[in-house]
Amino acid sequence: MIRLILVILAIAVLLAVSPMLIGEVGYVLISFNQTTIEGSIVAFCATILVIALGLYLTYKLIRYIWSMYSNTRHRFFARSEERKQAAIEQGVWSLVNSDYEQLELALANNSVAEPWQDLRHAMLAKAALQNNDASKAIEQLDKISPDNQLKAAKLWLASGDSSTVTGELKALAEAKKATALELKLYAEVLVQQQKWAALEQFMPRLLSKKALTDSQWSILLTSYFMAQPESQLTDKYQQLSKNLKVKAHSCYLAAMAKAGRLNEIELSLLKMLKKPEQHNELAQVLKVSAPGDALKLQASLQDALKKDPDNQALLLALACLANAHGEYDLAARVFDKALTRENSKAYLAQAQLSYSKSAQPQKALDLYL
Q: Which keywords does UniProt give here (predicted)?
């Protein structure tokens, strides 16, 4: 711009000086339509100079005002973006540290950048579930865009309402190239919706694809057998394939024990007693037992404890079995020896039963404290 003005100025000076050099005053005549402008070349050059200077000053003023606006606008939006970024970062770190109260404080009243909106709703849903507020969690999950709903499938399952993702998960799970995660999530949907017939047909695929860990199989099969009618437990177990029976064995025995049918599974429990690596599993089965008869198993447990009196798993198994036989005094004495800080929570119900039935209410109360 400055160069242009200098060029115009040079031309104007040249035009003004040229007539003088040849001894002429010089005139400028401008005519258009009915209008005529006439003046000396010096006046014309002065006018051009004033106009050029005015244009230059106007340009500088406009540029200055624009720069002020741009900087102000940039700083405003930059601060806004910084606040949004800080909110999502604080939310993620709160989630990492399982600080759900701080997570809600960071995200509930703060906006985040558009790409993080779905993640914000998912994290707020997670916080709501931790506070046992399923309706609030579902409200947040509903705000997640359709493209990302499946990414929050576990949260939908935890909310108790898996209907939103059921159809898509089913389609993915039935595809040839379904991932282990998709298969596992669909299995959880079937359990939550108690679609046991569909689960029975789906379990062989879960097994062939190795979609579940042993602990996940235990959770799934425990839910399955505990939901079956007592009269059908054995039939349901026998219908399973050989490989599935291996996974389901303890879960089936626990369901039978809970039904009080100890006499029907006593032989299997005795086999577990003979294998030291299955002693903990035996205790877990008897932990849920209802009243029933397995007198030979009790005698065998007592004989085994004579040889290994400090075997904690066998002590817990004996205490639970004694409760099932109504021998609460024996169960209480065994629990006195077997209960520890590590296992007291898992065997709380059985221990309280033995103490309350053996006229030791204070010990039963102490387990709550």
A: Membrane, Transmembrane, Transmembrane helix
E runs forming strands in the chain: 27-32, 35-40
- CATH topology classification for 266-369: 1.25.40
Q: What 3-state DSSP class applies to 333? A: helix
- Can you list the pairs that 344-347 forms with residues at least 24 positions away whose Cβ atoms lie under 8 Å? 346/287, 347/287, 347/316, 347/319, 347/320
What's CA 208's distance to the chain center, in Å?
27
pTM over 0.85: no
pLDDT surpassing 90 at residue 230 = yes
Structure token digits, residue 198: 């569909």
Instruction: Please give the pLDDT value at position 115.
Output: 82
With vertex at residue 12, the alpha carbon angle to CA 10 and CA 16, rounded to the nearest 5 degrees, is 115
pLDDT in tens, 104-156: 888 877 778 788 888 888 888 988 888 888 889 889 888 888 888 888 888 88
Cα distance between residue 210 and residue 246, in whole Å: 14
Q: Two tokens at 242?
A: 């050989």
| Residue 15 exposed, middle or buried by CB count within 10 Å (0-12, 13-18, 19+) | middle
End-to-end CA distance of the chain: 85
CA 117 from chain centre, in angstroms, equals 15
Q: What is the CB neighbour count within 10 angstroms for residue 281?
A: 18
> HSE on the CB side for 267, CA within 13 Å?
1
Q: Per residue in 297-325, pLDDT tens?
A: 999 999 999 999 999 999 999 999 999 99
